[in-house]
Design brief:
This protein has 260 residues and is an alpha+beta fold. Helix content is 43%, strand content 16%.
């Protein structure tokens, strides 16, 4: 396990931005996707897997009925990748995992749940550039032709128009792609998704076989309150990340909750 346990806010900053220097560009441009979890014991299981039961066979039924009952104007284009993105965004169990380009947004999700403050939190950092070097050549070529490091829903729609095509590619590898800007939450959270060509694929199991592609930053429970207070001062809050009255209410509830 590629774990780094931080002991201070300063060390946390160093770890969040480690390996972000890009020699070719002469700029600090991280190639990592970040996912923050309030409990370091959580694995990278999708909401579809956590549904339980025969979830793989239920996936097409969930998506079919979501498409049937949702308003048609919720997607820009009638493609499976648009529908998956919207479904994930609104809480339907899917094979997608939420990630962000922003280490501070990931850190917010480590510290947003006050009921988990007695537990160590974790940020997973995965190098999506090196991860995509594990993809089939056809997908690597598409990225190269676009001059892109991650996919868009348009690119996936062109190369993999349905999940059956994706499933039949074979192999066990993640694809990182940017969702459409459905609303301000997607934009403000600097979001991207990962997806695997198997409904039962658990990303953390795949990563164990590729230890050079990732690391985990463990935030001890003793550091969570300092982290949370400094994120609030930096305006990394529910009010910003979840624009609307629900985000405002969540922010105020947490702000005025007693520390004990």
């Amino acid at each position: 396990m590629q774990d780094v346990i931080v002991s201070s806010w300063a060390q946390l900053q160093d770890e969040l931005f480690a390996d972000s220097w890009n020699e070719e560009l002469g700029r600090f441009r991280s190639r990592f996707a970040f996912r923050g979890l309030s409990d370091a014991g959580y694995s990278l299981e999708t909401t579809l897997i956590r549904l339980g039961g025969d979830f793989a066979s239920l996936e097409p039924h969930l998506l079919r009925n979501f498409r049937k009952y949702a308003r048609r104007n919720v997607v820009e284009q009638d493609s499976i990748w648009h529908w998956l993105s919207v479904a994930q965004h609104y809480g339907l169990p899917t094979r997608l995992l939420d990630w962000t380009y922003s280490p501070y947004v990931a850190l917010h999700f480590v510290t947003a749940n006050l009921e988990k403050f007695h537990l160590d939190g974790v940020i997973w950092a995965v190098d999506y550039l090196k991860t995509h070097q594990q993809l089939p050549h056809s997908l690597q070529n598409q990225l190269a032709e676009e001059g892109a490091n991650v996919f868009t829903v348009r690119m996936l729609t062109e190369s993999l128009p349905n999940l059956q095509d994706f499933n039949q590619l074979g192999g066990h590898y993640p694809i990182f792609f940017e969702p459409p800007s459905i609303d301000e939450r997607i934009s403000n959270q600097f979001a991207l998704f990962s997806v695997m060509p198997e409904a039962c694929g658990v990303l953390s199991r795949w990563l164990q076989k590729h230890p050079t592609l990732w690391r985990r930053i463990i935030i001890p429970a003793s550091l969570k309150w300092e982290t949370r207070d400094k994120l609030d001062q930096a305006n990394i809050t529910e009010r910003v990340l979840f624009p609307g009255l629900d985000g405002l209410s969540s922010w105020l509830k947490r702000q005025y909750s007693p520390k004990s």
